[in-house]
């Protein structure tokens, strides 16, 4: 009998414990909520939210989600009246979503929050939670395990950088000799390289046994698809999606998006194999690799923020795609001597042919082995003897072709008889040449106000103005004029022919930029009795300081003036409206036999300095397109007629004008 109280007490304790655990189970969310309600989307932008693609449905079709609001779907195990609030991170209610909605058992009900607090103010960016109040159960459930994030600011996309993807190669170093300009085949001196190299400077290949390695230092990464690839590095972040953008820059007009591919949003790198969106190898040119991201609220962010990017704002994000390139000498080569051209032909062996401009006949031809490493191979081309001349060197490797100009200065008696020095605009040729010197994915040009390297390949083959410049040289040769030939870069450095022993100087094309030291020399030359002819528009108002010779020659960002170096003022290119270019006044007796010009659709007005004695030709309203004027004891003639050089082959009026000016230059 004594055991009965003990047994009864034990039963009471057990019942009490069971009741406690049952009460705790009833108090848990699982006892009231059918499932785990989760805000969809968990992050949103109530101001600029977008409708974005979400997960695919059961049939594999994409679904779309509105990121301007968030929603919560609730099902209860037992029917009840529900009020819904949104609380801040401290648990304080900031928005009332529902003040009492009747929910049936196991019937879902959706509650929306559009990101506004009670009173209509926008909720600040931050973390929030849904709060459920079960009225009949007198129970509050805070969904602290399912936060909501308000994100109204676009993410700052991570900056990128580009590196060559390592390629395991084994090569055997060989010794070769330069190619010479003979009809027989010879092999150029080349280093052994990987399929992609640095565009600006690279260390010489280091040979260890039979393996050759390349160390890239500065400049753009150079890629030759389909060989090799580049690795794009970026900072990982809490993104829902990440894409790599491949922009082709350096073309006329706006950059072109040629490829865009998704990458793992948790990664910090991706590989581009040098192809466009359709899988074909990208054309030769300059490319900028950027990043587009979507944050958890589907807000977009891009790097760079603006395309085209300003030069220097996207360091290490550039890739140069190259299949064939050549770097000609910056200075003239004496006629009969060897011109050395640096050739980069990573796709294999190449053939070359030399022609004089305006002539179809091949003067010399040969072939060379393709470059397979850093640094271009040295191609040696012997130029014809005696005469000054401008030549076109064409290089072909399989389906790829490029061409570069070669300049020959006269030698011997022909040089002694030349009273006029013709100057080719090498600085302008390179200043307009869209090559990425720095590796930022944006071409470095004087046009854009950049500092440029001078010893670099012509990205588009022959320079833009080459046709016009070549037309003048062809005409002078066809008429038997005696002249000496050089480049503005050589003349500025005192290499090759100089101003000494020449009565006149003819600037063959548009000298948009002159070396600053040459600008001063030319002005002094005229003031002390020399004569200068400038052929081409948009000329003589820009200068650039040269530096870095001889190892790394460069031209600084240009400076421009409202007047050119001789004091003349140039107006904007103006349509002629069909009017004739004719003599306006001729105080210097230069234009007196020149008839009216027809066929020019536009001209650049050229106003000489005030108070000087001048000869002018222009349209009837008095705007001069050709201006000749005194400066000191010398003369300046500026021709503001686009394509004037091209008209020399057939236009009698242009020929007569040039003949009159030439007489002035050669006096």
Description:
With 667 residues, the protein is mainly beta. It folds into three domains: 30-150, Immunoglobulin-like; 160-321, Immunoglobulin-like, CATH 2.60.40; 408-666, Class I glutamine amidotransferase (GATase) domain (Rossmann fold, 3-Layer(aba) Sandwich). 13% of the residues lie in helices and 36% in strands. The longest helix is centred in the N-terminal third of the chain and has 25 residues, at 3-27. It is elongated and about 115 Å long. Mean pLDDT is 86; it is low at 1-27 and 168-218.
Distance between the termini: 147 Å
Kindly state the percentage of residues in helix. 10-25%
The count of helical stretches stands at 8
Structural class: mainly beta
Beta content comes to 35-45%
User: Which architecture name of the largest domain does CATH use?
Assistant: 3-Layer(aba) Sandwich
Mean pLDDT over all positions: 86
CATH superfamily of the largest domain, by name, is: Class I glutamine amidotransferase (GATase) domain
């Amino acid at each position: 009998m004594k055991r009965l109280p003990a047994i009864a007490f034990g039963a009471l304790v057990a019942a009490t414990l069971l009741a406690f655990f049952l009460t705790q189970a009833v108090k848990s969310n699982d006892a009231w909520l059918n499932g785990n309600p989760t805000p969809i989307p968990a992050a949103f932008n109530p101001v600029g939210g977008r409708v974005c693609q979400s997960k695919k449905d059961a049939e594999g079709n994409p679904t779309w989600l509105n990121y301007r609001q968030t929603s919560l779907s609730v099902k209860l195990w037992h029917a009840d009246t529900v009020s819904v609030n949104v609380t801040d991170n401290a648990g304080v209610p900031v928005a009332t979503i529902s003040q009492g909605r009747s929910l049936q058992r196991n019937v879902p009900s959706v509650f929306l929050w559009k990101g506004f607090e009670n009173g209509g103010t926008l909720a600040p960016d931050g973390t929030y939670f849904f709060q459920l109040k079960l009225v009949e159960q007198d129970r509050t459930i805070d969904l602290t395990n399912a936060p909501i994030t308000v994100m109204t600011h676009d993410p700052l996309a991570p900056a990128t950088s580009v590196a060559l993807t390592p390629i395991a190669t084994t090569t055997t170093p060989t010794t070769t000799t330069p190619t010479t300009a003979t009809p027989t085949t010879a092999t150029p001196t080349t280093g052994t390289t990987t399929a992609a190299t640095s565009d600006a400077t690279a260390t010489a290949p280091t040979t260890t046994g039979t393996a050759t390695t390349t160390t890239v230092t500065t400049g753009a990464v150079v890629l030759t698809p389909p060989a090799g690839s580049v690795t794009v590095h970026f900072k990982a972040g809490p993104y829902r999606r990440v894409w790599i953008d491949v922009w082709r820059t350096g073309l006329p007009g706006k950059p072109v998006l040629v490829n865009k591919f998704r990458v793992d949003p948790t990664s910090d790198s991706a590989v581009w194999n040098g192809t466009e969106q359709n899988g074909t190898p990208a054309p030769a040119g300059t490319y900028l690799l950027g990043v587009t991201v979507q944050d958890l609220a589907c807000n977009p962010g891009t790097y760079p923020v603006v395309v085209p990017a300003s030069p220097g704002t996207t360091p290490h994000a550039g890739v140069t795609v190259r299949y064939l390139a050549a770097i000609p000498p910056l200075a003239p080569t004496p006629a009969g001597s060897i011109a050395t051209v640096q050739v980069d032909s990573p796709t294999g062996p190449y053939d070359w042919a030399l022609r004089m401009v305006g002539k179809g006949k091949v003067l010399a031809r040969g072939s060379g082995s393709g470059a397979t490493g850093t640094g271009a191979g040295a191609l040696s081309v012997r130029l014809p003897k005696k005469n000054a001349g401008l030549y076109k060197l064409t290089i072909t490797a399989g389906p790829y072709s490029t061409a570069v100009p070669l300049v020959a200065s006269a030698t011997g008696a022909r040089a002694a008889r030349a009273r006029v020095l013709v100057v080719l605009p090498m600085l302008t040729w390179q200043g307009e040449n869209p090559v990425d010197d720095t590796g930022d994915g944006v071409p470095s040009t004087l046009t854009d106000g950049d500092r440029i390297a001078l010893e670099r390949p012509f990205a588009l083959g022959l320079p833009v103005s080459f046709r016009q410049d070549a037309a003048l040289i062809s005409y002078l040769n066809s008429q038997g004029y005696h002249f000496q030939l050089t480049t503005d870069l050589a003349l500025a450095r005192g290499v090759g022919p100089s101003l000494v022993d020449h009565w006149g100087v003819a600037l063959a094309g548009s000298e948009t930029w002159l070396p600053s030291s040459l600008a001063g020399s030319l002005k002094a030359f005229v003031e002390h009795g020399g004569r200068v002819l400038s052929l081409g528009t948009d000329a003589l108002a820009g200068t650039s300081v040269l530096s870095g010779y001889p190892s790394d020659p460069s031209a600084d960002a240009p400076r421009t003036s409202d007047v050119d170096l001789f004091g003349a003022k140039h107006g904007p290119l103006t349509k002629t409206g069909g009017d004739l270019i004719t003599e306006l006044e001729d105080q210097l007796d230069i234009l007196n036999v020149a008839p009216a010009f027809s066929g020019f659709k536009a001209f650049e007005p050229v106003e000489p300095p005030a108070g000087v004695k001048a000869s002018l030709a222009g349209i009837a309203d008095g705007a001069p397109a050709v201006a000749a004027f005194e400066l000191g004891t010398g003369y300046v003639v500026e021709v503001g007629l686009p394509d004037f050089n091209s008209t020399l082959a057939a236009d009698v009026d242009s020929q007569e004008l040039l003949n009159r000016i030439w007489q002035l230059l050669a006096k």
